[in-house]
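As a warm-up, study this chain.
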Amino acid sequence: MIELRRIPRVPLVELRREMDRLFNGFLGPGPFNPASGPRAFPTLNVWEDSECLFAEAEVPGLNMKDLEILIQGNELTIKGQRQTIDGDDVQYHRRERGTGEFARFVTLPMEVNADKVEATLKDGVLTIMMPKSETARARKITVKTA
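Now compare it with the structure written out below.
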């Protein structure tokens, strides 16, 4: 089951995330930036419509019990663990898929209503629907003449 919860603000954690965000922007994609490019797992798409932000992550081979989704302000965190096949009689001939724990932090372009976030997992694709907070939604303003 996917667990969605808010996490309390911890100054050192926030400092690390902000430093990661700054370095990721400074370094840009490439071999010296492990948080971007083909090494980042899971790969993500983030888009929006008028009511919601959406995040779509490729998590092949994972179940809902393997994933945890966290929302804090305008930051989305996807955590999980991909199990490894181990044993005395197991011998790998090629090992390209990563195993173990992972976490992906994404700064969203606006705050969302964390109480109404929904997540679904189908065919190895995790889709997260995040309704925009009321302050982030566009409003039509009526212009009055004087």
